[in-house]
Amino acid sequence: MTGIGFLLPIALGLGLLGLGAFFWSVKSGQFEDLDGAAMRVLIDEEDSVDGD
Amino acid sequence: MNAHASIAGSATLEASLFAVEGMRCAACIARIERGLVEVPGIRSARVNLSARRVRVEHDPAISEDSILEAFRQVGFDAHPFASDSVADNRSSESRKLVLALAVSGFAAMNIMLLSVSVWSGAVGTTRDLFHWISALIAVPAVAYSGRPFFESALAAIRKRRTNMDVPISIGVIVTVAMSLYETATGGEHAYFDGAVMLLFFLLAGRFLDSVMRARAEDSVAALLRRVPSEATVLIGGKQVRRRVEMLLPGDLLFVAAGERIAADGTVLEGSSDVDRAHITGESLPERIAPGANVLAGTINLSRPLTLRATAVGNQTAIADIARLMEQASGSKSLYVRIADRAARLYAPAVHSLAAMTFLGWMLAGAGVHQSLLIAVAVLIITCPCALGLAVPIAQVVTAGALMKRGILVKEGSALERLATADIALLDKTGTATLGRLDASDLPVKAGERAILAALARASRHPLARSVTCAMEGVEAAKGDRIDEVPGLGVEGYFAGRRWRFGRPDWVGSKRDGGTTAAAFGPADGSIRLIHFADALRPDAQRAMAELDGLGVLPQLISGDQVDVVQKVAGLMGIQWRARVTPAEKTELVIEQQRSGHHVLMVGDGLNDGPALKAADVAMAPAAASDVGQMAADIVFFGDSLDAISRAVRAARRMMRVVKQNFALAIGYNVLAVPLAIAGHVTPLIAALAMSGSSILVVANALRLRSAAK
Known about the structure:
Shape of chain B: elongated
Number of strands of chain A: 0
Radius of gyration of chain A: 19 Å
Strand content of chain B: 15-25%
Radius of gyration of chain B: 32 Å
Strand content of chain A: under 5%
Order of helices and strands of chain A: HH
Mean pLDDT of chain B: 82
Strand order of the largest sheet of chain B: 14-26-25-24-15-22-23
Low-confidence stretches of chain B: 1-10, 83-87, 216-221
Helix content of chain B: 40-55%
Oligomer: heterodimer
Largest sheet of chain B: 7 strands, mixed
Helix content of chain A: 55-70%
């Protein structure tokens, strides 16, 4: 029973961490341009463009 | 671009958004992002390929025009983009939904884990503790993720209507309230897992739906971009640049060759060719002389013109079309989506069933608490979880299958509307035909070809461009003094001999082929007439027959001359109407709708815009003007008209699957409802029923992957 006392907060905390990471990634615009991201890997690196 | 910003100089940067056409690949991204920063004053450019937009950070001192010119330098057409447009609202709606989906997913997983321990036999304090923790997760999660449904349900109730969101909201709120009461009183059953899982599944459907709709963009703004912002006005013989808003009817306008005309008017001086492709969809330039009327938004191709403005600003023909389009778009919004139609039947049935269950158990002698528990269980079991998924998942899978075939569906409900279409109205130029001029009778001798290539390259006239396209790969000959003579053609000297390409009478041909022919030849030698025609799309006849076979009657409507339309319609084997104005096209559509038909409009030009908006469902070829593309619900790539019948077949198959899905979802309820009414439903059974029916519906919709064959 004491195990639950530790495990439940840990499990919930990890879940919340993941949720927080997802919120951050959406807010910072990582899902704004999915097509562009797929294409950008094909651009040559040598004289790389300075993005945002 | 105000004064204090430019004093600050390069320290403060301004960011502007541009809508850019024709970006497709990595090379385009690199070209724009690297090319633009080389222009002094532009600090950085960032392409968003999904939204087809470029964000440019620049010195506030640099003008919008020079940024547009920078885009042209790297080979792209850009338009300034207002950030408060409809498209932006839509994408922020998708973003809200995906966050709500994440929250409900997180909550559903954690509560489900806790529920598993309760179902596997936890009793007493442990069960109460787990219920409390579940409540702690569920209440904020429902409050956050449920908002899209609650807001929509409230809006519907205010309008005294009901939609799918009303039973969903009632179900979720009642379930959570009842579970909270049970938790507080130490009861056996709490349905937090069911409520949150329901939201999760429904949000998944809602998110898919909104991703599809985010592609649709505002079309009317694009239309008015066709009119330039400034014009040259002649006042007392002097040329003065004026903003278009300051023009008055009666003003004398001077239009240079290559300039876009700013107002409707009558030509006073000069003769030239006018490119009307964006307004009328007509691919051939019109030859005009003094006395002729010209439209705002058309391009003066060859020689300077002086004209008297007859209509300016919002009196012009182009503004009329914009108004017609705005009015017409109302009829499409009247369409009630199939999911909402189902909800109108479903919601009252479910709610009266729950109420009757409550009354029944009260009469049978159970207490208020017991009867309420059972009635809520009925509500949970009947909550339209699978119904909420049934339509969007089928639409998304079908749209994905069509996309692989080069048919883009911009909105899910377009497929619902397409499935019922029984009349197809097709525009001629650019829709039934390819909308481009194909040159025939080109010279065959290598020497002549090289000279023609060199001459054609020197001109921007549509006929010369067409020759350039046809002669791709031919090495141009080296010549001297290659010069374009406005209104006549191009001439140049090759090995000392003068060659001309242009109007037949100017080159020296005895025959005059009108605007559809050009001549090419040396000053003293045989002259060749090159003919241009807008070819019919390949397989048009077969595609039309197929459409007819599906019960969709095709008809050709065009603003063109009777004999031309008759000939094209004859080749396609369908009925026709000629000399139809944009407003008449719209009327024709509405007339057919009044007589009970569902109209599919296929068109490309700006002049089809209002009709495309008014029709039940609209398709446009990908080569259409951007207004045509945006007014349409479905855009198809490629030269073949097969796309129309393919889309109709896919839409009908989708509707069959949607109906099957409804049957499956309701069938599931029919099995589970007697259990619920009898009071045998536990949270475990509710969870199983809900996820089971959702998975079944999704699996059935996945069969549509082959719908576009």
